[in-house]
Automatic annotation (TrEMBL):
Keywords: ATP-binding, Glycoprotein, Kinase, Membrane, Nucleotide-binding, Serine/threonine-protein kinase, Signal, Transferase, Transmembrane, Transmembrane helix
Stretches assigned to the Protein kinase domain: 158-447
Compartments where located: Membrane
Protein name: Protein kinase domain-containing protein
Species of origin: Quercus rubra (Northern red oak)
Family: Belongs to the protein kinase superfamily.
Amino acid sequence: MSCGDYNIYYTHSNEASQSFPSGCSTIQLPVQEHSHEAELNITAEFDFEVRVSDACSRCYSRGGLCELDKKAEFNCIVTEEAFQKGIKSLEVIAIATSFAGIGVLTFIIYCFWRKLSSTKDIWKKENLAHQNVKAFLRNRGPLVISRYSYSDVKTMTKSFNDKLGQGGYGSVYKGKLQDGCFVAVKVLNNSKGNGEEFINEVASISRTSHVNIVTLKGFCFEGSKRALIYELMPNGSLEKFIYKGNPSSSNHQLGWETLYKISIGIARGLEYLHRGCNTRILHFDIKPHNILLDENFCPKISDFGLAKICPREKSIISMVGARGTVGYIAPEVFCRSFGVISHKSDVYSYGMMVLEMVGSRKNIDVSVDLTGEIYFPHWIYKHLELNEELGLLGLLNEGDEDNARKMIIVSLWCIQTDPSNRPSMSRVVEMLEGSLESLQIPPKPYLSSPSRSSIGSSTVMGSMQYDSMY
C-alpha cells in the first residue's frame, strides 16, 4: 500500500506505528507532551495542506461527508439535514426555472400580439382605403377616362423599367400606351392616407379639359394596386428651370418672354379650375414643382392630390387642418384669424410662385446667415416702391423689363395678407395681359419672413415631392 492518495496517519506516540504502510512517512505534530489522549493541543504554527479527490469535492458540494470504509474505499455520507437542504435547493431551482419560463412565454405572447395588432391596423387601414375608392368609383358611375388592369400598367412601363421620380405618395415611371402615346405612370403607395389622394386626383382632374391642365389618360384600381396615368411632359417641372444654382437649370435658363407666357398660362389654368368647370376646383398646392412643361414650354397644372371640389356658387369652404407646401400656403389656411379659406388661397400660392420665377430663387435666401436673412417679397417691394433698378438678370430689352414689372406687381397683389384684397385669377390674367401703366402698386404685405426651421419643409398634407416631374 502506497501513500500516493495522501492518506494521513497520526499517532500520539513519538514512535511510528507498526500498522503504517511502509511507503508512508510519519508526521510529528508539535503538541504538549502530557496532553490527554482525547485532546490535541498544538503548541506551534505550521502549514497544513489537504487535497481531496474530485469525488469527495462533489460529495461536499451536495452537503455530504467524505469517509473511507474499513477497506479504504471512498464513501459519501449524506446526512438528513444535507438531504433536506438539497431538496430545498432543487425546489428553488425548479421555481426559478418556472418563473423564467413563464416570463419568456409572456414576452413571446406580447410580441406576437403586438405584431398581430399592427398587421390588423394596417389591414384595416388598407381595407378602409380600398372601400373608400371602391365607393367613389361606384358612385361616380362610368368615367370618361380609361381604367387599366395592373398587368396593363406593368406592360406599358416595361415592368417599371424607366423611373422618372420619387415622392411621398409613390413613384413615377415612363410608359407607352398601345397607340404609341408616351405617358407618366404614378404608382401610389398603399400606406398613404385612406385613398383620399387617389380619389382627389381622379375626381378633380377627370372633370377638366384645358390646355393648361395636365391630362389624365387613365387609372388603375385593382385590389391594393393603384396608379394614375398622365400625358408625358418632356420638359418636366418648372422647378428645374427657375432657380439659380440648380444643376439641372444651369444650361436651361428660360428667357423673360417664356417666363411671362408661363405665368399667364398658369393663371389661365387656375382661372379655369375656379370658374370654367361645372364645379369649382381648389388646387391647394400651386408651386413650381407641380407645374409641368410640354415640348413647347406650355405650362400645365398637375398633382391634384390635395384638391378640394365645391359647387361653383360656393366661394368659402370648411377644412380641417392645413394643406399645402410651406412657403406657398396662404395665411388663412393655417390660421383662420387671417380670413376664410376660398379660391383666393390658390391666388396667394400663385403669387409666391411667380415671385420665385422673377427672382430665379426661393423667396427665402438660405445662403445668408440668420442676421442677414433676406425675404425676397419685401426686398423686391422696396425696390419697386422706390422705382429703383430691380437688378434682375437677363433683361434684354424694354419689353422684358415691362413684363418683369407686371409679374412683380401682380404677384404682390396676389400675396396680400387679407384674402379680400387679392384679385381673382380672372383679374390676374387681365392685369398680366394689360399695360404696365394701368397697374397700381399694392400695399406692402406685412407678413414677416418665415422662421428658418420652416425653410425647406415639405408638404403639410402629402403632396407629391418628385425630383424631376409629376
